[in-house]
Write a structure and sequence with these properties.
This protein has ten helices and seven strands. It is an alpha/beta fold and about 260 residues long. β2, α1 and β3 form a beta-alpha-beta unit. The chain is globular and about 50 Å long. The two termini are about 30 Å apart.
Length: about 260
């Protein structure tokens, strides 16, 4: 049994469609704060802070995708949730995919945002984050500021980016190293076909980390998958277009819940 206790925020009708949201690297549940305000009450949203991030416990080790994924089902059990729609962004999409592969009975649907399809070791964009594997405390603020800025193509409302950087500043160097040493080793390409949940892939057309070929591969590999592209948006499209993303999450989650009921 996994004993990591993850912080989370919860909103919406407890009898609504349960939707669990998993953030990207060095973010926290607050990465979904702009989205939460647009989600309707019939979506029972739970935004989680993953281990090592935000105000979650920060063990010295345990930052492989398998470790992060192993925290999810125990959280669902603690929350008394059966099937959920699992939403993952970037790092969270890898975690969500791992959960979907290993625990298909717990998913009503799957949303993969800014998601990697091909083996990450072959992704040239990740060469730009290799320096994170050598970080030591204290981490200069410009490191997360430049990293978070690289995920955007458009300016955010005043103070929003600084708020996300504040959350990244809570992540100690050993977690940065653990995440960015392990992420390039991830290769789920041969396992994606085991995902049985209806899947929505969302990508920003100007994403510097995820190429269109990644989305194409996900569509080919996952049996029941479709794609939405946010034209002009970057890797953090949910920050640039939170209202649109909330609407897409709500529509797909209702559809997935209805699909499960009809089976």
């Amino acid at each position: 049994m996994n004993n990591i206790s993850l912080p989370y925020v919860e909103q919406g009708d407890a009898s609504g469609v349960p939707v669990l949201l998993l953030h990207g690297a060095t973010d926290s549940w607050r990465a979904f704060e702009p989205v939460l305000r647009f989600l309707p009450d019939d979506i029972h949203a739970i935004a989680v802070t993953q281990r090592g991030h935000g105000d979650a416990p920060k063990p010295e080790t345990g930052y492989a995708i398998d470790d992060l994924a192993a925290d999810v089902v125990p959280l669902l059990d603690r929350l008394g949730l059966g099937q959920v729609v699992l939403v993952g962004h970037s790092l969270g999409s890898l975690v969500a995919s791992r959960v979907a592969i290993d625990n298909p009975e717990r998913l009503a649907g799957l949303i993969l945002g800014g998601a990697f399809g091909h083996p990450l070791s072959a992704n040239p964009a990740l060469e730009g984050v290799e320096a994170f594997t050598a970080l030591e405390d204290p981490i200069p603020r410009e490191v997360p500021y430049e990293f978070q800025s690289s995920t955007l193509t458009r300016p955010l409302p005043d103070g929003m980016l600084d708020g996300f950087v504040d959350e990244s500043m809570k992540v100690p160097a050993h977690v940065w190293r653990g995440i960015f040493e392990n992420v390039p080793r991830v290769d789920l390409s041969d396992e994606l076909g085991a995902i049985t949940a209806s899947t929505l892939v969302i990508q920003g057309s100007e994403d510097v980390y995820v190429a269109p070929s990644d989305s194409d591969m996900l569509l080919d590999a996952i049996p029941d998958a479709r794609l939405i592209v946010y034209q002009g948006a970057g890797h953090a499209f949910h920050w640039e277009e939170p209202e649109r993303f909330a609407a897409d999450v709500a529509e797909f989650s209702r559809y997935s819940a209805g699909l499960q009921l009809s089976r």
